Amino acid sequence: MPIYEYKCSACGQKIELMQKMGSKAPKKCPVCGANDTLKKLISHSSFELKGSGWYVTDYKNNSKLNSNNESNKGEQKDAGKNAVNH
């Protein structure tokens, strides 16, 4: 579930709440108790992709890719030798 950030217009306190994406904003400030004063803030996400495996170049190992291509070429040549012409 995403974490949403709200600010109370009465007391100025910022709060973070874990809510479902379709949930409505809370009606009451948990700090001062004022009703209908919380406004949703737009904040930066802390989600970050780290490590290997997140880019196309990380998925492929060129040596494996080249060896697979070479073995496929060899199989195609062998298949051609065993073909029977009618």
UniProtKB/TrEMBL annotation:
Region of interest (Disordered), ranges: 63-86
SMART domains xrefs: CxxC_CXXC_SSSS
InterPro entries referenced in this protein's UniProt entry, alphabetically: Regulatory_FmdB_Zinc_ribbon
Positions in coiled-coil regions: none
Pfam families xrefs: Zn_ribbon_8
Annotated ranges, domain Putative regulatory protein FmdB zinc ribbon: 1-43
PANTHER family: CONSERVED SERINE RICH PROTEIN (PTHR34404:SF2), REGULATORY PROTEIN, FMDB FAMILY (PTHR34404)
UniProt xrefs under NCBIfam families: CxxC_CxxC_SSSS
Stated name of the protein: Putative regulatory protein, FmdB family
